[in-house]
Amino acid sequence: MTAATIRSFNRTLLLACAPFVGLLICLYISQVELKLSDEAFPSHEIAQPNPALHSATSIDGLGQAELLAKGTGQSIKKQITLYNKTNANMKEIATIASKQAARPYQIYDRRITNKLGSPSGTIQSDKLQAQLFHLDTQNFRAYALKVKLKKDDAMKLVLGKDVQGGAETTLEAVKRNNAAIGVNAGGFADSAGKRYPLSTTIVEGEYVGGFQATFKDLFFVGMSENNKLIGGKFTSKAQLDEQSPKFGASFVPVLLQNGRKTEIPSKWQTSPKRAPRTVIANYKDDQLLFLVVDGYNEKGSSGATLAEMQILLQRYGAVNGYNLDGGGSTSLVWNGRVINNPSDGQLRKLPTNFLFFK
Question: What sign does the CA torsion over 285, 232, 263, 324 have?
């Protein structure tokens, strides 16, 4: 850029600024004041809150909140009351339903119990209900034991002194195992000074001496895993295992099946004709019935015939019935006391006994 050009630019700038500079000098000399009116800055009044009004509003809000809370509380109380009432009603309905469901059993139990008469003794516990009856018969003295099992461990079969070949009286077995009731079980055979259970015997789910297929008039009778009486003739172990046997013993013969008398083999009609007897049976509701008959000898002059036992089983409403070992083996122990009159004059030592626990 040339010097002439710079001078020309400066002159132009000076001319442009001259009016403004002159105006400032004039104002300074004349002392002119520049003021802006109040309208240039309009005021805005800020409303101060009324403390009393604010307090009233707050109090009113708190009142509404309190009413709301009270209403909510009352609603909750009503819901709780309704829930409790509904719950109580449901319990009452369940109780009534339970009573109604149990009524058929109660009616049936009353009917079969009335046939036996009035019990002379009762054991009631969480494990079982047992009733002892003295029966009125024309030709012999007899006893009935009716048992309702409530738990799996209420009944079991024990070996004499808990060993194969061992023997003990029913009373000894009851005391040794702290049982409440004892009844003699299956037949036996003596060998080399020891007493062994006859044929198939099961204790705590295990076969004692192995399975023996049914021959002649022998049968197996015992309890299943679900506390039901099982019995009859079994030709194979698999056939018996299908019944889930928990314990049981063997003897002769079968007396009743599905409420009907079975044919008694001729041998057992006369050998002996009359004798002390022990019979195990069941009812439709799975209660057990034991019939025990006194006899003063085993020569056939006292006691009951097997045909008479069949009559008693039908009279008392049993479904299935099995003859257990009798004669001098017949034993009934109730609460630590021997109830029957053993034909040997004292209890016989046996290899198997049924025990019941309170």
Answer: negative
